[in-house]
Specification:
Elements (H helix, E strand, L loop, with lengths): L1 H33 L2 H35 L17 H48 L21
Helix pairs in contact: 1-2, 1-3
Protein name: FlgN protein
Organism: Thermodesulfitimonas autotrophica
InterPro entries: FlgN-like (IPR007809), FlgN-like_sf (IPR036679)
């Protein structure tokens, strides 16, 4: 059952990457709350890198899982949590534990995503308010451009 061993290895790699993405997301939220733009950009770049790695691991896992489904005569595209019952006993425990851990990490990431979305929405609301205030005050800066007044043309010329 070389494929089972490889599947468990892939899932452990995915789990480690997801755990690191969670850590980076925590750092990004903290940086966002503190207004640390450099840390936000650094965290976003790291998340993008880790997300690419996770996508590649997931593609590899899906191919391997399809092979296992065929080998074990399971329905196509079954859920990962459906596999342990069809595997030899020695693989059931580790696979079930990894499946639960991945579900937990995905839930945590969804919560962080919602929190970050809320923070971004709040920041945008503040930015819009400041832009309106600056516009009303007819101040020029990077956020708003003051409307131009058309001057009177000297008709005596």
């Amino acid at each position: 059952m070389e494929r089972c061993t490889r599947l468990i290895g892939l899932l452990e790699e995915e789990s480690a990457v997801l755990k690191e993405i969670i850590t980076v997301a925590e750092e990004e939220i903290e940086a966002f709350v503190n207004g640390d733009h450099a840390r936000i950009l650094k965290a976003a770049a790291r998340q993008e890198e880790l997300s690419g790695l996770l996508v590649n691991l997931e593609k590899e896992r899906q191919v391997l899982q399809q092979q296992l489904e065929e080998e074990l005569h399971l329905p196509k595209n079954c859920r990962l949590s459906d596999l342990p019952g069809a595997l030899p006993v020695e693989f059931r425990g580790p696979l079930a534990e990894l499946s639960q851990r991945l579900q937990k990490y995905a839930s945590v990431l969804l919560l962080f995503q919602a929190r970050l979305y809320f923070l971004i929405e709040r920041a945008l609301t503040v930015e819009e308010t400041v832009a309106r205030l600056l516009s009303r005050a007819r101040l020029k800066n990077d956020y708003a451009v003051a409307p131009r007044e058309v001057g009177l043309v000297n008709q005596s010329v």
